[in-house]
């Protein structure tokens, strides 16, 4: 009887094929199918990153070479006012855009969580800016901030002739104009991620909070929000990686100006590799930009490992 049961578990009725062999053959086909993607990822990302790091220690000009000069490129990089201003602009843009995206993204997610009518339509509207090209987004906001075409002109035509709102024309406020464009572009995808986290909260939590007489806003802020660590971390990491490589929207809105008021590290890298024919300096800047990305990824793994360790202890 046991032999019959064992044979019935290891055979597929009707064809006599072993299921383990079928699974093995299916896994092999899956691996073969992913080989082109693996080769592309290794070739484009891993190998290019390694060579970029190597060339950052050379005096490469128009074309890469292997004339090593040690840390000279990094010394020149951090002694450059243009680079230091770019890093400062990146921190300003990153802090305000990430905070804005997370706060407004969560508020929109709470709004969508009310089971409103035409939810699909509103979701599409909020996600539409993220689907647009960053160049198009930048041009739209450039027109909106243009004192002769945009918001300032429209309000003045309504009778408020003293109204002034043209942040991109001033070095002191240009970076904040770029921040507004970045928030408009990224808030929709943040909303979608956080809405998925809200919909994943157990319904019993809401019932218990309602029975205890806790207001809805306190439930969203102090009970539900801490339970959405996974969704919040995902949205935060997505925003951080987008901030580090910000380029298109700045070029479209300000070209890095006025002056270098909105210069970003990615613009610095591209300009030195192309316009200034200084590959070594550009690669040093690019390698430095990689550090915060590695730090964010390491933070993600550390938090996941800590959560897994706590679950295992429980």
Automatic annotation (TrEMBL):
A Gene Ontology cellular-component term: plasma membrane
PROSITE patterns the UniProt entry points to: ABC_TM1
Domain of life: Bacteria
Keywords: Cell membrane, Membrane, Transmembrane, Transmembrane helix, Transport
Membrane topology: Multi-pass membrane protein
Entry-linked Pfam families: BPD_transp_1 (PF00528)
Localization annotation: Cell membrane
Region (Disordered): 1-20
This protein's record includes keyword Transport: yes
InterPro entries on file: ABC_transporter_permease, MetI-like, MetI-like_sf
Domain ABC transmembrane type-1, residue spans: 87-302
GO biological process: transmembrane transport
Listed Polar residues bias regions: 1-10
Membrane-spanning intervals of the chain: 28-55, 90-113, 125-144, 174-198, 219-238, 283-303
Similarity-based family: Belongs to the binding-protein-dependent transport system permease family.
Protein name stated in the entry: Sugar ABC transporter permease
Native source organism of the sequence: Devosia litorisediminis
